[in-house]
Structure formats: structure tokens, C-alpha cells
Amino acid sequence: MAQQIEREPGSGAAHEHQLIADVKSQIARVIVGQDDLIDRLLIALITYNHALIEGVPGLAKTLTVSTLAHTLRSTFARIQFTPDLLPADITGTLIFNPRNGDFETRLGPLFANIVLADEINRAPAKVQSALLEAMQERQVTVGGETHPLPTPFLVLATQNPIEQEGTYPLPEAQLDRFMLKVLVRYPQREQEREILTRALDGGEVNIEPVTDAAGIASVHAAVSAVEVNDRMREYVIRLVEATREPEQYRMGDLGALLEYGASPRAGIFLARAAQAFAFIHGRDYVLPEDVKAIAPDVLRHRLVTTYEAEARSVTAEDIVTRLLEGVGIP
User: Fold this and answer.
1) pLDDT tens digits along 95-108
2) CA distances for 38 relative to 158, 202, 291, 307, angstroms
3) Which pLDDT tens digit goes with each residue over 175-184?
4) How many other CB atoms are there within 10 angstroms of residue 234's CB atom?
5) Global pTM?
6) Does 3.40.190.10 match the CATH number of domain 226-326?
7) Contact at 8 Å (CB) between 50 and 44?
8) Is 138 left (phi over 0), alpha (psi -120 to 50) or beta?
9) How far apart are CA 115 and CA 72, in angstroms?
10) What are phi and psi of 43, to 5 degrees?
């Protein structure tokens, strides 16, 4: 293992590493800070998965997603979710054409490479289910005809944690469809100063596309080749197992705080996300630090806590922190 850590980043994926660097450089022209958010959006993009973004208003969640989309030569759609939205509004419907007396299929905004589902928790259950089914199946049926969604197909959904009145929280089973749940924090003081300077003194910034669907597919293949050795696989298994049987890892007190642990899908997503995290940081092998860095984003929305945890003000975030401290690296 020591020899592996000393290796220099592989040169076989130099072009793909440069693509990621170019995308981040373009985003930095618009977005100040938010490095963790940008990295996680890239992880979702290059693994062909979806991400849920949670943060208070004004933290540039929507701007970051739209800026990422503009760095790619791909289609982009923003759907503002509202309580009166219907499933057909996002998936598409049949429209009667009086010229030929026939019905024609009009596909909805879901048929785009990157879909920004803004304030997803404002939409009713039927609309959420239609979106999440499309995320899982990567196809939509309109008028009895099945239409495949484009590749890549990435749903980046945002939700506001402080406005709960008039919202429809996503059920735990549907949250599991998202690879990552990213919490967006407030910027630091110097970052806020830079934001204010750009807002007052800066002009309009044009984003240049740096790659397309083929380029993303190339990066996706390179990420899949990132090594996850037996030790790292065992570490992932231990972390997921500890969410279900914490007493096996000398954390029996967590048993009363967890109603349900993470599913096998969580382990797959954690390993995939660790591969992508390592790749973004210039390595072709996964380290324990990669797993630890991305584990909160993969696990926080998959742990169902008990009433006792709520009474003790223990959150899923707190439990993930305990798991990372208590589960040893093989």
C-alpha cells in the first residue's frame, strides 16, 4: 500500500484531467468559493448520477448549476417546481394537431442533459414521482410510447430547508435515488468580500463551453478505471454495515438512534463517488481520505433516525460523524 501512495498521478487520463480542470476554471469565473459544492456536482456529472442540493436562499445553488451547464456543449433545462405543477408539465404530453387530425408527442423539459429541478420539495407527490421514476429508468412513457432520455442525463435538485409550510418533503425511499445530498454552507468572510466586489464592480462574464457529451463519456470511462483495492472495498462495506449493526463496531448506543441504515445501493454509490473524488484530485487510486471526504454526502439522506434521536437533537449528520470516527480502516 505504501508504494501505491507514493505513485504519481497516472498520465493515461491526462486529457480527462485537463477537461475537469478547464470546467472548474470556467465555473470559478462566476462562482466564488463553494469548492465542495462544485466538486460534488462534478462527481454526479462524471458518474452519470444525480444530486440533491440543500441550502438557504442566496447561496448561488441555482447559479452554480446553470454555470456548470454552460461549460458543456449540452442541453440544459430549468424546472421551477410549484404546487400546481402536473407530471405532464415535465415529462411531456400528446397535443392534437388540427391540420392532420392526429395527436403529436410534445416532449417536456425533462429531455435535457442537465435538468435543474428548482425547489423540488414544492411539487406534489405525483410530480416528484414522475421525476424520480425518470431518474431511475432513464426513460419516459408519453401516450403509450417510450422515449429514452439523453446521455448524460443529470438531475440536480435544490430544496430550501427553512421553508416547510406548503412543501412536500421527499420520502426516504425516493431520496435514495440521489447519489449525493450536498449541504451548501455560508461563504467565508474573504469570499463574501469578493462576491460583493464582483457584484458592485464586475461586468458580465461569458462562460466558454469546454467539452461535450463525448468528453464527459471519456471522463466517465476514466473514472471507472480508478483503482478501488480490497482494503478500500472492505472499508466501504464496514461503513455501510455499521449503519445497520453499530454494536458490531462498539457503537451500540447508536442502535437506539437509527431506525433504518443504509442500503447496498449506498455502498455502490460510496465507492463510485470515492473513485470520482480521487480522479478530480488527480489520482488513479482511492485512499481512505477519499471515502471519508465523500461519505457524509452519500449517507446523510439514507439514514432514518428514531424519535429518540430527534428528542436528543441528534441528526443523521452527527451519526455519520460518529461512524467515520468509530469504524476503523482495514
Assistant:
1) 767 777 777 777 88
2) 14, 22, 18, 34
3) 888 999 999 8
4) 12
5) 0.86
6) no
7) yes
8) left
9) 13
10) -60, -45
In this structure, the number of other CB atoms found within 10 A of the CB of residue 66 comes to: 17
User: Is-contact 24 42, C-beta < 8 A?
Assistant: yes
Backbone φ, ψ for residue 290 (5° rounding)? -65, -45
Distance from C-alpha of 34 to C-alpha of 185, rounded to nearest angstrom:
8
Phi-psi region of 31 (alpha: psi -120 to 50; beta: other; left: phi over 0): beta
Query: Domain spans of the chain?
Result: 30-197+212-216, 226-326
Single-letter residue type at 194 = E
Query: Residue 296 pLDDT more than 90?
Result: yes
Extract the C-alpha cell encoding 126: 405525483
The one-letter amino acid at 238: R
- Is residue 110 classed as helix, strand or coil in its secondary structure? coil
What confidence tens digit (pLDDT) does each residue in 305-314 have? 889 988 888 8
CATH 3.40.50.300 fits 30-197+212-216, yes or no: yes
- Cβ–Cβ < 8 Å for 304, 259: yes
Question: Which three cell numbers mark 295?
Answer: 461519505
